Amino acid sequence: xxxxxxxxxxxxxxxxxxxxxxxxxxxxxxxxxxxxxxxxxxxxxxxxxxxxxxxxxxxxxxxxxxxxxxxxxxxxxxxxxxxxxxxxxxxxxxxxxxxxxxxxxxxxxxxxxxxxxxxxxxxxxxxxxxxxxxxxxxxxxxxxxxxxxxxxxxxxxxxxxxxxxxxxxxxxxxxxxxxxxxxxxxxxxxxxxxxxxxxxxxxxxx
Length: 206
Description:
By secondary structure, the chain is mostly helical. It has helices at 3-15, 17-31, 41-45, 48-66, 70-73, 76-102, 111-136, 140-154, 156-171, 177-200. It contains 10 helices and no strands.
């Protein structure tokens, strides 16, 4: 790939770096028999959904970034990796929904945020399934559009780190309640807005 072709996948991976590092720390913690605290009790008691979510997200973010490279889309690599990315993306979406249902809410979250996680997890899963259905019909433009939207939601945690940052810098504390819900939702909406802009630009996928 040329330097220009590297820019977008590199930027996407960098955006996902904070949640990927946080997820790696969480997996390391769970693998060492941690002391149970209020912050990790739900993960220690039921680690499967969070482990599936983290592992699926790391694969989905990294490999998914390279699906934006035109040269790779013209070769079999794109299709082979896509067969891995679909189950990984669905794992991320459904495990996110699972955690929203099964885990007790942490102190800083509320029912509004839990509901939004159900909504966006469902939208992500639906986007991936619609993209897969379009690919099976060989409707490649529609396939690409839905897959870009699903990836945008999957990368939401990276943008959410930046939507939280101004609040933390201004107040010195972490947001909670409706403020936190708004900042989390803002991350997903920003990514979807950027995805729609990307798809509509002359050089985009659509």
